[in-house]
């Protein structure tokens, strides 16, 4: 069934004759018009290869005063929404190219999706990674079935080597781009959300370096209902999309490349197709702080039991930061698109988020070095229901009286109000208490 809307003209205007860079050695196909029919065809073709992820009502709704539905794309096999575009891209390759194989050169979600789905389709796949790549990523790609080769100390070295191997052996060198095929695959997220959540008022997507998900899904949603508000969210540290929209052409923030925490959100600049679609179809682009992203990761872990990375949490961060007050009382879907966060980084992010959320705090005070004084301090902490995480005593470098000891204590509290109550109780008994500000 074909659904006709006046947004067909918008899509046609957005993608009229955009040239493809000649230096790119990946899919050298002309970027044709992305139509709603292309997205529908992609949805039909990939339905057996990717998960139809749930879009569930969130317990966070009451906290933020709106009906929030979370599209849990991090539940895909490789933990990323990129699987949709990658699978459709690989299935669209000519059979002779599928026999020769494909090659990629990065440790991104895109490369992991290529490694998995190429192996599933029995397409020879090679992944070139720099020697600085985390061992866990190398291990994962190998488990997916890819031939992983470590080469060079930088991503640039790996890319040059991959292009040379592609030219010498007939492999197709793939890198994340905004071809019509790839965008159509990503746009299937918009189709699913429209089916899963009736009467949507707004949908929030991650933006930033790669905004193919935002552009492709906007094409689907605006076709089905032009009144749905499409919102993109990027980092204040790397506002690449807003800069590009203002300039009228893709730009690149060199400071954001290979930023470990932001991952694919801070990737290389997207192409003209995505930018044109975003400019035509996206209603608003907002930027959030790193602190908001960390709090968002904490909220998702606590309320949804969802372990996500910065790209997965950045959409919700706009609501956490209060950047979208116009959505109060509305029906809002948020795409949680990625959950590939390394364990050591997850631990650091959650610890920092708890501090930002005023639930882990540190203070120091000086007490007399006499029997019973430490127990009195611990009694106050117990009475105030603060959980002691760490406590240290310093005698050697104390600058006050001779028989005194400095106590440095880290405690966990319920929330900001509980922290304030504890602080007042300590100041009442120990007026010189010094609170470590975050």
What does this structure look like?
- The chain is an alpha/beta fold and 438 residues long.
- It folds into 3 domains: 36-80 and 180-353, Rossmann fold; 81-174, Rossmann fold (3-Layer(aba) Sandwich); 359-435, Alpha-Beta Plaits (2-Layer Sandwich).
- Helix content is 43%, strand content 17%.
- It is built from 17 helices and 14 strands.
- Strands 1-2-10-7-8-9 form a 6-stranded mixed sheet, with helices on both faces.
- α6 (109-120) links the parallel β3 (102-104) and β4.
- α4 packs across α9 (180-196).
- The longest helix is centred in the middle third of the chain and has 17 residues, at 180-196.
- The protein starts with 6 loop residues before the first helix and ends with a strand.
- Residues 1-31 have low confidence and may be disordered.
